[in-house]
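LOG
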Amino acid sequence: MLYPVYVHPGDKKHAHGVTFPDFPGCFSAADSWEDLPAAIQEAVETHFHNEPNAAVPAPTPLEKLSVMPDYQDGGVWLLADIDLSRIDIKPVRLNISLPSSLVHEIDAWAQHNHMTRSGFLALAAQRAMQAPK
């Protein structure tokens, strides 16, 4: 489904930043325009991961968003094709044990990056499984 995202273009020192008007608290970034679609999909999957009874809202019409003051700072609009079938909103409860200091570090990192602890752990596991062996 096509969702409008607002891209803050980067430069040689900064990545392109992405905000999702329809998903408050969801953010993404990529160093190149070519990498944006994958980064956007990953951000949405992570944002909705392990959120019980989460309902993915319908896209807001671009005409409505483009006149809002929050989106008048030189960014550009992109219609992102988000594969909603890859969003697994049915949580599975796990019982794991971690050192308390690690849990505090995870929580601090997750909060700073607008994520839940579960979302962070899911993202870390996905990245670890995708890393070259």
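LOG (cont.) second protein
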Amino acid sequence: MIKIKFQWLKNYIELEEQIVYLKWNINKSKKELFRWVEGDLTDVMLTKDSDGSKLEKVIEELEEQLTEQEQLKESLVLVVDTFKGIEHKILKLKYIEGKSLESISEELSYSPGYIRQKHAELRRRLEFLEEYEAYKFKLNQMK
């Protein structure tokens, strides 16, 4: 139950990582395209099947993937906003909105000590789940 309860945080983090990687890949591809169009590779002859000739299409596909991932992230945040309970609120404010535990305590009208204690408890539970999943994966690999 706990695994499912906080699966949204894992999904959010994965989406964030994918978005960062896609942005990096788009930037890298645009720089490479610039080299072919205006840079040091303008004198090099491209063939129909060369990677350089496909860069514009690659960039377009990467940008579509980026848009899709950003939309998924936005919809996940909307779903998380519907969750009840202080645990979800703490995790959302801390890991999605990037707020400090002090500001979370002010926003939720709880003492800073309570929020720190609750956050530490959540972290221990999430770390346990990750260790348990890794252990289960390792056991399944041995079979």
